[in-house]
Amino acid sequence: MMWSSRITSIGFQFAVPVGFGWWLDRRWGTEPWLTVVGALLGFLTGTLALVQLAKDAARAEK
Length: 62
Hints:
Layout: H1 2-28, H2 33-61
Helix pairs in contact: 1-2
């Protein structure tokens, strides 16, 4: 159960900033710039979370 919640959380970290950027773009008429910023931010946070997950898994194997 813990692993599934962590994986779901990482998925949200990738997706939510993109969705929020898209919503702001539509609201403020700045397309596609805030979506791009959201994609970059989501990629960064999701990647950092994946690296942390891998480190935790490596520690658990020892």
